Amino acid sequence: MKTPLPRWGRLSSALLAAACGLLIAARGHTEEPEDRRGQAGCPVRLESRGRCAEGGDCPVQLRLPPLTMELPQELGRIQEVLKEVQTLKDIVSSLSKSCQDCRLQADDNRDPEGHGDRGDDARVQELESQVHQLSSELRGAKDEIHELHGRLEQLSLVNMNNVENYVDSKMANLTFVVNSLDGKCPSKCPSQEEIQSPPVQHLIYKDCSDYYVIGRRSSETYRVTPDPRNSSFEVYCDMETMGGGWTVLQARLDGSTNFTRTWQDYKTGFGNLRREFWLGNDKIHLLTKSKEMILRIDLEDFNGVKLYALYDQFYVANEFLKYRLHIGSYNGTAGNALHFSKHYNHNLKFFTTPDRDNDRYPSGNCGLYYSSGWWFDACLSANLNGKYYHQKYKGVRNGIFWGTWPGMNQSQPGGYKSSFKQAKMMIRPKHFKPKLGSAHLSRYSLGEP
Ligand SMILES: *[C@@H]1O[C@H](CO)[C@@H](O)[C@H](O)[C@H]1NC(C)=O
Ligand SMILES: *[C@@H]1O[C@H](CO)[C@@H](O)[C@H](O)[C@H]1NC(C)=O
Ligand SMILES: *[C@@H]1O[C@H](CO)[C@@H](O)[C@H](O)[C@H]1NC(C)=O
Ligand SMILES: *[C@@H]1O[C@H](CO)[C@@H](O)[C@H](O)[C@H]1NC(C)=O
Ligand SMILES: *[C@@H]1O[C@H](CO)[C@@H](O)[C@H](O)[C@H]1NC(C)=O
Ligand SMILES: [Ca+2]
């Protein structure tokens, strides 16, 4: 005999969603953060289903929670890195050859002492061997990844980022070595022009704090190069808040920029750096990779209340890892809405946009429902990219939202939702020390030993 399975697909997803408390996006009136207290994660469930046969035998369904694992697919990236190493090695050997050619020329029309040239030659060989060593270290990194592959159960995203950073720092070092080789050739070498070598970067401002350090104190746009292998780009620097040196990632102040955008828009950034904008996930990734960063969020509501949140660590992974968010511990006055509770936690979540669903809500797209790109959970206790409302509003809570704001918890389901006048996200190196009161620096002690 055959038990019919009517509408199981739909029924099961509804049950699963209910069991996991994931109905937030589907039902506007259940979206308050505190509605979720007391619910554990989605456990393994055994439940009866369908009509019981005579004699009490009932069909039973075993449900396992979905399992998601991050596989170290940077393996593909490593191949690219090794290719890049080969290219760099080729550059080194052609540079080395051109230096030798050039030395012969130089011997013809210069003083016979020529110690410098011999020194350069030795230097080239030394650098070449360094390059070889580095490339074998890169192979070591590859092995390391293979080993990590074998220990998947212990693998967290943070580990992967460490490996990525390790490889990246080796690459940066290698690039640096090759760049310095570029300046070692005797100056009259004619073939030097033909050699395609990376430009030597003399002054690199990785983020706003580097401009602060050289004495720039006005809040405006500056050009930064967080990673010398990528092109530089403009950022807005806040040189006033809490000592200054902040690179602004996001700003809302008047609703002039639409934040309901595609994955591609959030990737490259949009808006006006002097008003409202999203800097762009690729740039945010490079900035947070170049130095250990802290995050500051400033918020102001329409009653003039201004509060802030500080996170002592902030890292956004690359596009391959879906710009996963990593935040450290909280301090501040606005409350820890990015990590509100076990079930409302934006930390370690992927980026989701209306056209790219990477959230933890199984039956829909939080980005579509809440009209923005964000590191959605299932779905949110904070969303600074929501719509800009000029006053309180009703309906779906798709405005700029910070769940720990004073009075936020009192709003009734279906009632008015509060809105924000200003929001700003910015980062600064963790070990940055603002110079407080630099007046004494201009005083020199003259005459005293
Ligand atoms: C490159 O690596 C070598 C050895 O690992 C180290 O001594 C050197 O300081 C590094 N250079 C840069 C620019 O990081
Ligand atoms: C913002 O952009 C979205 C998607 O293009 C569009 O549907 C929406 O109407 C826009 N909102 C405003 C206020 O222009
Ligand atoms: C940096 O370079 C990588 C690889 O070429 C590219 O995918 C990425 O978009 C670049 N990032 C920026 C901010 O230009
Ligand atoms: C939070 O910040 C304040 C002000 O900077 C500081 O005094 C305090 O020690 C910080 N608390 C923690 C837990 O870091
Ligand atoms: C809202 O939160 C505040 C402080 O977090 C608390 O004192 C108050 O009782 C809460 N109100 C409701 C209705 O839960
Ligand atoms: Ca989803």
From TrEMBL:
<keyword id="KW-0732">Signal</keyword>
<dbReference type="Pfam" id="PF00147">
    <property type="entry name" value="Fibrinogen_C"/>
</dbReference>
<dbReference type="GO" id="GO:0002291">
    <property type="term" value="P:T cell activation via T cell receptor contact with antigen bound to MHC molecule on antigen presenting cell"/>
</dbReference>
<feature type="domain" description="Fibrinogen C-terminal">
    <location>
        <begin position="199"/>
        <end position="431"/>
    </location>
</feature>
<dbReference type="GO" id="GO:0072377">
    <property type="term" value="P:blood coagulation, common pathway"/>
</dbReference>
<dbReference type="InterPro" id="IPR014716">
    <property type="entry name" value="Fibrinogen_a/b/g_C_1"/>
</dbReference>
<keyword id="KW-0325">Glycoprotein</keyword>
<feature type="coiled-coil region">
    <location>
        <begin position="124"/>
        <end position="151"/>
    </location>
</feature>
<dbReference type="GO" id="GO:0005201">
    <property type="term" value="F:extracellular matrix structural constituent"/>
</dbReference>
<keyword id="KW-0175">Coiled coil</keyword>
<dbReference type="GO" id="GO:0002617">
    <property type="term" value="P:negative regulation of macrophage antigen processing and presentation"/>
</dbReference>
<dbReference type="InterPro" id="IPR020837">
    <property type="entry name" value="Fibrinogen_CS"/>
</dbReference>
<comment type="subunit">
    <text>Homotetramer; disulfide-linked.</text>
</comment>
<dbReference type="GO" id="GO:0043381">
    <property type="term" value="P:negative regulation of memory T cell differentiation"/>
</dbReference>
<keyword id="KW-0964">Secreted</keyword>
<dbReference type="GO" id="GO:0034116">
    <property type="term" value="P:positive regulation of heterotypic cell-cell adhesion"/>
</dbReference>
<dbReference type="GO" id="GO:0042730">
    <property type="term" value="P:fibrinolysis"/>
</dbReference>
<keyword id="KW-1015">Disulfide bond</keyword>
<feature type="signal peptide">
    <location>
        <begin position="1"/>
        <end position="30"/>
    </location>
</feature>
<dbReference type="GO" id="GO:0005577">
    <property type="term" value="C:fibrinogen complex"/>
</dbReference>
<dbReference type="InterPro" id="IPR002181">
    <property type="entry name" value="Fibrinogen_a/b/g_C_dom"/>
</dbReference>
<dbReference type="GO" id="GO:0002605">
    <property type="term" value="P:negative regulation of dendritic cell antigen processing and presentation"/>
</dbReference>
<dbReference type="InterPro" id="IPR036056">
    <property type="entry name" value="Fibrinogen-like_C"/>
</dbReference>
<dbReference type="GO" id="GO:0030674">
    <property type="term" value="F:protein-macromolecule adaptor activity"/>
</dbReference>
<dbReference type="GO" id="GO:0050687">
    <property type="term" value="P:negative regulation of defense response to virus"/>
</dbReference>
<dbReference type="GO" id="GO:0070527">
    <property type="term" value="P:platelet aggregation"/>
</dbReference>
<dbReference type="InterPro" id="IPR037579">
    <property type="entry name" value="FIB_ANG-like"/>
</dbReference>
<protein>
    <recommendedName>
        <fullName>Fibroleukin</fullName>
    </recommendedName>
</protein>
